[in-house]
Fold this sequence. Notes:
- The structure holds two protein chains of two kinds.
- Chain A is mostly helical.
- Chain A has a domain at 52-249: CATH 1.10.230.10.
- In chain A, 55% of the residues lie in helices and 3% in strands.
- In chain A, strands 1-2-3 form a three-stranded antiparallel β-sheet.
- In chain A, a hairpin with a 2-residue loop joins strand 2 and strand 3.
- Chain A is globular and about 75 Å long.
- By secondary structure, chain B is mainly alpha-helical.
- Chains A and B meet through strand 1, helix 1, helix 2, helix 3 and helix 5 of A and helix 1, strand 1, strand 2, helix 2 and helix 3 of B.
Amino acid sequence: xxxxxxxxxxxxxxxxxxxxxxxxxxxxxxxxxxxxxxxxxxxxxxxxxxxxxxxxxxxxxxxxxxxxxxxxxxxxxxxxxxxxxxxxxxxxxxxxxxxxxxxxxxxxxxxxxxxxxxxxxxxxxxxxxxxxxxxxxxxxxxxxxxxxxxxxxxxxxxxxxxxxxxxxxxxxxxxxxxxxxxxxxxxxxxxxxxxxxxxxxxxxxxxxxxxxxxxxxxxxxxxxxxxxxxxxxxxxxxxxxxxxxxxxxxxxxxxxxxxxxxxxxxxxxxxxxxxxxxxxxxxxxxxxxxxxxxxxxx
Amino acid sequence: xxxxxxxxxxxxxxxxxxxxxxxxxxxxxxxxxxxxxxxxxxxxxxxxxxxxxxxxxxxxxxxxxxxxxxxxxxxxxxxxxxxxxxxxxxxxxxxxxxxxxxxxxxxxxxxxxxxxxxxxxxxxxxxxxxxxxxxxxxxxxxxxxxxxxxxxxxxxxxxxxxxxxxxxxxxxxxxxxxxxxxxxxxxxxxxxxxxxxxxxxxxxxxxxxxxxxxxxxxxxxxxxxxxxxxxxxxxxxxxxxxxxxxxxxxxxxxxxxxxxxxxxxxxxxxxxxxxxxxxxxxxxxxxxxxxxxxxxxxxxxxxxxxxxxxxxxxxxxxxxxxxxxxxxxxxxxxxxxxxxxxxxxxxxxx
Lengths: 298, 350
């Protein structure tokens, strides 16, 4: 059997021989045998260290609370893909790939915090002062402050505040928690002063803060959140594959299906005649000159 | 839209007015289908979870309450996939399995993740891509598990011992990538240790027992030295923990995606991006048609041979010729079925 590497790279993460698989110097099998948890292994993977007991507990809490979120864009993607009955991993992959600039923007929140904490350090400002600057800069520029607000949990994300409190209880709060709390304070104060409604911290604002304080980089934190969600999206896809209708359009189901024809609302150009090839050049030129098509360009 | 159809009918559109058409294309309506008021309107039906403004609930358990009570990711995998709280020993066992599945060196999920990373993508794109590496050869937990179930069912139906059915399973599948027995772990004790751990924790059941019989049968039949491999160990343990083959496939693929994320990060930290057209393919790796002049388009009819065959003999001859063209797809035989019930039934062969 060919056991040549599929890909060659210098790596500080792991190696694998016929005898063992080694992660950051630790034999994986030995890690498991000695009673370390999967969350411990995540610290080894991303941080090259064994965590404290409370750090491990914090990660366990964060991954546990983030894993399932019922119908979010990621679950919808997984279910949508599963309707074509491909192999299950494609639905899972789609769900993880749904995490971008809006859905669970874990890395963006982390980068935002790092950038402003760095500024506080450079400019000799307190974290509280810098948090106010951050809030003002974002809101003055009409940019959403990462980590605040959730379109479904409109009056406080059920996961977020408990994460903050758990971080404090476990005494794993650091510079990030202090900074995030200050962001929230100034954000709420400004919205109140502007007569606007209360917008609570979301699971990214709270969870990512905890992940940063226990030593994960913005990208590692993003990986933890988005991949973790892949587990529950797999369950949603699997439920639909095993119990649901393929295609999602059957007219025999008692409930209108996801892509039943009646679910389509068209808002584009009116029905029109396809020009013959002989008419094409003149037609296309006129269309281009008139420019009405630009209303529809996406 | 009658007028528009009338106008189109007069203008004639391609073959749409052909008498062989089973319908009159010009009579077809325009416009969307009105909302269906006779049936219940669409809702996202789920047995797995729901949420409202204030709660997220998985299989009846509020997820915030779960973590506040000390349950974690590994426990909630049992909740999501099996609608139950696991025993402490089961939670320990799944932790063990997931540690072993987290990292596998620069195997395919890591390699794919790194390749995607080179294109300056989001991390999530690379992690998602890594999951796609899990098929019916690499990480073939679905194929493996469904086979185990199938033969255990056969043993029951045919009144055979599991030892006899294990022998039959090996005879019929010795060289299959998803057997769970191979020459991959002759020197690495990790797979066997995993089964020992399951037994120590008291979570070993019929799948592990059957797996051991499969290993024994394979060792007797195989001309090469073979032993339990990681697929066989993890697959059997997961099924004894109550996970279906598909749930196992999903959980292990996602677990590996965390590792793929670390590889994405390292690729960015230590490497550089790759641009379109940057990577070359050496001439010496090419063994296709020799370099040749591109004929003038006006000479096309003189050179082009139509693909159509008109008898079964001609078809067979052409088919065999086409099989010699690497990349044409004719040399691959696949049975692609609806994997709704079992996702391990796709047969791929040459």
